[in-house]
């Protein structure tokens, strides 16, 4: 591919051209974004201000909530703003930044989910060695590895996007800049770049999903030897993780683990892993988690009592 570029900005076609649908989407996604920020900040503050922060599972949950906020903030504010204007544009530089940020924070979130599955595996399958295996130093190292993995995944994506020959048209049939829509508007053969993207994004998604699936299969097999109360508590926690994984990985696998092409349905599926899954994470991890609910009551009810 020649490094040829005559495009200084892109026009995003968005979700729909109809004003009534755009107005409905504006109200819906504004509510979702506010709920996402409020829910994840509630989790962060509740864990920071309680002893739960020193437990590995909630330490990782803090990082997951932080990634949810960063990840969706790369896309959702721009989407909400674009729903109010007729011509939706994004500069070339901001488009490349969005490609990098989405893959960087998204891949960190994937790796954090994998670490959380490993944490549950150790807690359920090797409970006597849990405190030794999941020491504070090792937890910090795992989070650092997740950030390093995010960088290793996202920089090649950015490099591929920057190298694309873009000489028009500059219309992207999506509501944010991603690598597959950019491949579609490139003005030369991008088959090699497409294979590299699938090998990168697709394999990261598939491998982590398989690791997560195998982890929970092992956990479920181990639970057969636990008491009824132990099974109930473990299944409640693991059920929360599995719900998040299905919401995030299902649409991601559909989009990234296939030949490099785009479909109109891609925009709908992308909504699940950019907005809906991060919004439901706080609900999933609080409504089905007794420890989180108790911590939130102590932090928020206690603080309210002190103010009185």
Gyration radius, rounded: 21 Å
- In round numbers, the mean pLDDT is 82
Give, in order, the helices and strands. Answer: EHHHEHHHEHHHHH
> In what range is the share of β-strand residues?
under 5%
SS summary, helix count: 11
Largest sheet: 3 strands, mixed
Net shape = globular
Strand order of the largest sheet: 2-1-3
**Secondary structure tally: strands:** 3
Contiguous low-pLDDT stretches (5 residues minimum) are none
What is the first-to-last residue Cα distance? 67 Å
Classification by helices and strands: mainly alpha
Secondary structure: helix percent: over 70%
What does this molecule look like?
- α4 runs parallel beside α8.
- This protein has a 3-stranded mixed sheet with strand order 2-1-3.
- With 308 residues, the protein is mainly α.
- It has 11 helices and 3 strands, in the order βαααβαααβααααα.
- The mean pLDDT is 82.
- The radius of gyration is 21 Å and the shape is globular.
């Amino acid at each position: 591919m020649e490094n040829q570029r005559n495009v200084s900005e892109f026009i995003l076609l968005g979700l729909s051209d109809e004003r009534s649908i755009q107005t409905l989407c504006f109200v819906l996604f504004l509510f979702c974004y506010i709920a996402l920020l409020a829910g994840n900040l509630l989790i962060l503050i509740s864990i920071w201000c309680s002893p739960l922060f020193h437990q590995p599972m909630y330490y990782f949950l803090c990082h997951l909530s932080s990634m949810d906020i960063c990840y969706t903030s790369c896309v959702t504010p721009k989407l909400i703003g674009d729903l109010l204007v007729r011509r939706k544009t994004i500069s070339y530089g901001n488009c490349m930044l969005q490609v990098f940020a989405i893959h960087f924070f998204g891949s960190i979130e994937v790796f954090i989910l994998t670490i959380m599955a490993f944490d549950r595996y150790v807690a359920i399958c090797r409970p006597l060695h849990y405190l030794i295996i999941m020491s504070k130093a090792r937890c910090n190292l795992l989070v650092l590895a997740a950030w390093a993995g995010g960088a290793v995944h996202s920089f090649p994506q950015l490099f591929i996007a920057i190298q694309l020959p873009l000489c028009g048209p500059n219309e992207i049939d999506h509501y944010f800049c991603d690598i597959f829509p950019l491949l579609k508007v490139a003005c030369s053969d991008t088959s090699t770049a497409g294979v590299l993207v699938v090998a990168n994004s697709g394999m990261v998604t598939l491998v982590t999903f398989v690791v997560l699936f195998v982890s929970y299969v092992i956990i479920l097999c181990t639970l057969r030897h636990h008491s009824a109360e132990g099974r109930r508590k473990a299944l409640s926690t693991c059920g929360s993780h599995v719900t998040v994984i299905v919401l995030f990985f299902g649409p991601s696998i559909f989009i990234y683990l296939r030949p490099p092409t785009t479909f109109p349905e891609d925009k709908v599926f992308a909504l699940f892993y950019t907005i809906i899954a991060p919004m439901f994470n706080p609900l999933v991890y609080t409504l089905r988690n007794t420890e989180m609910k108790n911590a939130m009551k102590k932090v928020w009810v206690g603080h309210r009592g002190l103010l009185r």
